[in-house]
Amino acid sequence: MSAPILVEDLRRTFDDITAVDGVDLEVHDGEIFGFLGPNGAGKSTIVRMLVTLLKPTSGRARVAGFDVVSQSAQVRSSIGVALQDAAIDPLMTGRELLRLQAVLHGIGRKDGNERSERLLERVGLTEAADRLVGGYSGGMRRRLDLALALMHEPKVLFLDEPTTGLDPMSRLNLWEEVRRLNTEFGATVFLTTQYLEEADELAHRVAIIDHGRIVREGTPVALKDQVGSPTLRLDVPGEQYEVARDLLVQFGEERAARSGRLAVGLDAGATGMRDVVRALDEAGIEVLHMELDAPSLDDVFAEATGRRLEGAGE
To answer: Which of 200, 246, 253, 273 is the most exposed place for a label (fewest CB within 10 A)?
Structure first.
């Protein structure tokens, strides 16, 4: 059986701007695949090509076994899509929108009504089903959009930054729903996100994209293991920054950090903290903040690009 998503040397340019630059990907059947990167990295452009909303400049892509250019109709009938900027009619109720979606997919009335009720229950919108969507919260609208994408029981589900702008509780609820879809239905999920925790929590495998190119790919655990030692982060007064920097690099290789903060990969791990604190004290350096963190996907991104993913799109 062919991979649900197979991408070979995919490229997309806009005039003299290269948004996607030779991407190769293979997403396995039944997995949640996380596509992680900052704003403007090319995530949404790739999704729009894979769901047939945008033609590639060059390269090939197959989704659910069909070519995204020459077999676009078959691709669209096989996938579910929940995009960031999905337009949902605010003057219709949730139940009406789901039943309309069933009609658009050629699903009979009885089956469509049954699926609508089942999906409303699944995404926790049964009590709000007859309210106008214009009165829904952001989290409710995202859950309704997810239900709409599932109406025709797609083989592959695309979620483009599904939790952007949601409050923490709504984000956790949506994560749980994505997990259930994957485990109970075996749905293959292609998830784009700029949130490190989201990719770490949900994805079986992750690809990290920067400036239109894949810079790292693998399981979150394997990618973090490649970074190795934990990261020591330190804030000191500005006038002591260079002295502290010269001292810290004796304990490990310098790593990317936000402006004004020092970071090194602490070779000795947590046991080396005592020696670092002693050295800082002997040098008369005032410590404003100190933390030691296990390797994260942000460290993976920093190791690959020389800057932090958090805030990288700014």
So the answer is: 246
